[in-house]
Amino acid sequence: MRSTGFFLASPSRQSMVMVVVVLLAAIKSTAAAQLSQNYYASTCPNVETLVRGAVTKKLQETFNAAPGTLRLFFHDCFVRGCDASVLLAGPDDEHSAGPDATLSPDALDLITRAKAAVDGDPQCSNKVSCADILALATRDVVSQAGGPNYQVELGRLDGKVATRAIVKHSLPGASFNLDQLNKLFAANGLTQTDMIALSGGHTIGVTHCDKFVRRLYTFKGSSAASRGPPMNLVFLRQMRQTCPLNYSPSAFAMLDAVTPTKFDNGYFQTLQQMKGLLASDQVLFADRRSRATVNYFAANQTAFFDAFVAAMTKLGRIGIKTAADGEIRRVCTKVN
């Protein structure tokens, strides 16, 4: 039987390890315990109404803010925890690095507006974190796009650090296989079912050609495996028109071409039809270990919504900051 360093440690070292483990568990438990659905009941009772109003107004101007905000929340939580570090601007900012370089300006503007709306209420000024505003705005864009309306846990603090160097390694890649996806999500306390449900957020998303062009053409030195799972041939020809070999860097396609502005289970139905643009999406149906869940969500929208809400709640608990390493920013783009 293989031994680990822990079991080979001396009694005194074992005790030290156990103390560290207990302390880390206590810190994590304390951070998670600060979240509650009525966190601002006495300090800013109108916070949800204020954020929802800003979301409604922005979506009336452009729907782009909906998928953009959902993506912004996911990227924030996966990189340094749900601490609004993705909003920080500066020489080491996250939102211009790697996968974050294509984060939606409309989503960033929505959070700026929501923050202004909240701070515009004298009772709420400088009492609500940018991280909580982002979490609420994410729920509201999902709901207003036709998705589930769920309760959001609140009480997050804003982080004081942004590190662009870790962005690329913290987020799933467009060519990830199921094992890579499960490993990354498991590292954040999320199950395979959580991962598949959160991937369903692509029902209102878009992706740029550079993320899936290798699935459309055979490039020198590329293999069948590098192109990912097979694609519906009619759909492939359509996508070649959207993304020719000399495509524009700004060219994009809808991840759910059937109902791109409606939060529904159409994304999973496109996977059944072999019309997933990203290899990391289509693999969810191609791999037998995850196919049953895709089929279930494709046939039962209520089940998808329930799983999505459960996964979003767990996602929102990642990396919660305590008073020692967090604050309530006066301006979302810079630390106090």
From TrEMBL:
Record domain Plant heme peroxidase family profile: where: 34-336
Record's protein name: Peroxidase
SS bond partners: 44-124, 77-82, 130-332, 209-243
Keyword Signal in record: yes
Binding site for Ca(2+) 2: 203, 256, 259, 264
Assigned protein family: Belongs to the peroxidase family. Classical plant (class III) peroxidase subfamily.
An annotated GO cellular component: extracellular region
Keywords on record: Calcium, Disulfide bond, Heme, Hydrogen peroxide, Iron, Metal-binding, Oxidoreductase, Peroxidase, Pyrrolidone carboxylic acid, Secreted, Signal
Top-level class of the enzyme under EC nomenclature: oxidoreductase
EC number annotated for this UniProt entry: 1.11.1.7
Compartment list: Secreted
Residues annotated for substrate binding in this entry: 172
Gene Ontology BP terms: hydrogen peroxide catabolic process; response to oxidative stress
Species name: Eleusine coracana subsp. coracana
Domain of life, per lineage: Eukaryota
Details of cofactor binding: Binds 1 heme b (iron(II)-protoporphyrin IX) group per subunit.
Binding site for heme b: 202
